[in-house]
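Hi, here's the filled form for the chain we discussed.

Project: internal
Contact: R.S.
Residues: 233
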Amino acid sequence: MSSPSAERCLVLEDGVRVPFGARTLESFRRWARSPSFPEAGRIDFLQGDVEVDMSPEDLGTHGSPKAAIGAALFEHVRLGDLGMVWIDRARLSNRKADLSCEPDVVFFRWETLESGRARLIRRASRAPGRYIEVEGTADLVVEVVSDSSEAKDTRRLRRLYHLAGVSEYWLVDARGPKPGFAVLLRRTHGYAAAPVNRAGFTVSRVLKRKVRLVSSASRMGLSRYELVLRPRR
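And the returned structure, exactly as it came back:
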């Protein structure tokens, strides 16, 4: 079998070369693990469609809330030794959902990793502790909506993460005057938004905490975001 770099490719305007052979989940995953896979941008496989987004990240409405959520989750998970949190470029693939993507933030409990519900895929070198992908499901996935990803984040990924068995999906939209923050809980036939109390907190069942995303003005007209976690009572 020829390598992805030797195959005929579809060349997009941004110079991304998508092999014609990357039309199935397994062939796409082989390409994603190969040296020819682009190091920049976000490239997802969604039930046969290869979606390429090379748009520069909006620092205020995407980078800042993503960093705040990732930092707070990382610290909470580290302190409780709950599992692993990864931000950007952590590929999650799931055969049942026919999905391979790189969520903005993703959390795996130790129990999920140790049980095999999520399986770490080693790099080609097979060196100990070197991994390039997770196959299976995740406990919590966060996507921050951008102008180029709105339809994908709010509709397609919402459906596919459910098919993949992701327990909780956080959907963030910071493009308006007040950041939108929805904690979506997995039900039998889809996700349902967790209710928000009078103080603006909603309950994360995965974290067993009340959570709220707040924003405040900072210098130079930039917004600062904070993910607030409180004990669940």
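Let me know if anything looks off before we file it.
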